[in-house]
Amino acid sequence: MSNDLIIEQSGDAMLLTLNRPQRRNALSMSLSAELVGAFEKARDATDINYLIIKGAGEHFCAGDDITEMPKWGNANDVMRRVRYYQHMANTLEELDKITIAAVDGMAVGGGLEITMACDFVIATERALWGMPEVDVGITPGWGGTTRMARLIGRRMSKEINLIGALHGARRAVDLTLWNRVVPIGALDAEVNHLLEVFRVKNHQAVRQLKFIINRGVECDLYTAQGFEALSGALSGAVNGAWQVPDADQGSGVVDFASKKGKWDQRRPLARNFWVDCPSMQTHPRE
Question: Which of 58, 93, 133, 286 is catalytic?
Answer without folding.
Answer: 133
